[in-house]
Design a protein that fits this description.
Length: 261
């Protein structure tokens, strides 16, 4: 049996490897954050950057086998692709299990992993932090909606997108002090003909014999906030915020605020 499926991913776990009990993954509450500086000239990295569904599959190929029917949730996987149009794209991957970076193709990325425990334990009320967060900013249509069909996801823009984050930040233990919002770089998934994934915006298209092209609605938020409730903030950091976690949304990043402001 070949090790990969022809697209650079391991097709199935070795038959002599034991399944992992998902309950063991979060026993000590530990978390790791891995920073992957992608090589855009690598053909597989270039392909992954053009399809969020494939990028998700790449991320999931790094976690242990045998995590049950919901491996992303069992492994606590959150990820986000950061691009600034200048340097190389950076993929952040957060998990509560050790990932196997040896499964990456040679030359795919430069990687660095750090333990999140010191940051999580340092959170306290009143602490100023810088944040970055990519949210799946959509609104669900009701039964009597005039802008779309029932449960259709309508992308939010402008002030509506800003309010989306302002409504969720307090529940995540943060008091916002500043917020710069911007539409994320266009990211698209291609799926076999079927119903689009939950939490995605409009703009799907279908052609016979081709995958469905599905752009997702997301907004990048950056700014300064104050920690109000460390317990709520830790929960938000560990579980992610909002929908679209399988497609790169929901990961909240924090950094210290410099002493000079």
């Amino acid at each position: 049996m070949p090790d990969t499926d022809g697209r650079g991913f391991r097709s199935s776990p070795p038959t002599n490897r034991r399944s992992i009990n998902p309950a063991c993954c979060s026993r000590d509450g530990s978390r790791g954050l891995t920073r992957l500086v992608l090589n855009p000239d690598h053909h597989q990295a270039h392909r992954d950057l053009g399809n969020t569904a494939v990028l998700h599959r790449r991320v999931m190929s790094l976690v242990p086998y045998g995590l049950g029917d919901s491996p992303r949730a069992s492994a606590g996987v959150l990820f986000r692709l950061d691009t600034d149009r200048v340097g190389s794209p950076v993929l952040l991957v957060q998990t509560r299990v050790a990932i196997d970076l040896g499964r990456l193709p040679n030359g795919y990325a430069e990687t660095q992993t750090r333990d999140m425990a010191p940051m999580l334990s340092a959170l306290r009320p009143g602490l100023p932090v810088r944040y970055r967060f990519l949210g799946n900013t959509v609104r669900r249509c009701g039964r009597n909606s005039t802008v779309g069909s029932w449960k259709q996801a309508i992308p939010l823009n402008g002030e509506d997108a800003v309010q989306w984050w302002a409504d969720r930040a307090p529940a995540s233990g943060l008091a916002l002090r500043s917020c710069l919002s911007s539409a994320s770089d266009p990211m698209t998934a291609y799926h076999a003909p079927a119903s689009p994934p939950d939490g995605w915006g409009s703009g799907t298209s279908r052609k016979r014999g081709q995958d469905i092209r599905v752009p997702y609605a997301a907004t990048l938020y950056e700014g300064v906030a104050e920690v109000r409730d460390p317990a709520k903030l830790r929960a938000a950091l560990l579980a992610g915020i909002g929908r679209g976690k399988s497609y790169g949304c929901g990961l909240l990043s924090l950094a210290p605020v410099p002493h000079d402001g």
